[in-house]
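The instructor's notes for this session suggest beginning with a concrete chain rather than abstract definitions. Hand out the sequence below and ask the class to guess, before any prediction is shown, which regions might be ordered.
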Amino acid sequence: MSLADQFERVGIVVGAVLLVALPLSLAVDALVGPETPWWQLLVVLGPGFVVGWAAAADDLPVAYGSVWFVCFVGYLLSVATIRLLELVPVHEHTTSVLVVLTASFAVAVVADSYR
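After discussion, reveal the predicted structure:
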C-alpha cells in the first residue's frame, strides 16, 4: 500500500470521527447536561472512529458520501431547528432536542436518497 493510500485512509477516519461527533455531541449534551463526565469524549468520538475505520476498509454498507451528507445536513437542520424553537440550553429541553435530532436525521436520510 502506497503512502498516498495510507494518508487517504487516515483522512477518511478523521473525517468520519469529526462528522459523526457533531450530532452525537448535541445528543450527549442534551442527555448529560453541562457537566462533562470523563466518558463523554469516548461516547462522542468512538462511533465516528468505527464508521471511519469501516469506510476506510470498504466494509461500510452505505456510501461514504452518504455518511458525510447525512451527518452534516442532519446536524445543520437540528441546530437551525433548536435555535428557531429556542431550545437552548439543550440540557433543559432533553426530550424536545432528541425529537428534533431524530426528525432532522430522518429528513437528511430522505434527502440523501434523492441526491
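Then share the key points. The chain has a mean pLDDT of 93. Helices lie at 3-32, 40-56, 64-84, 94-113.
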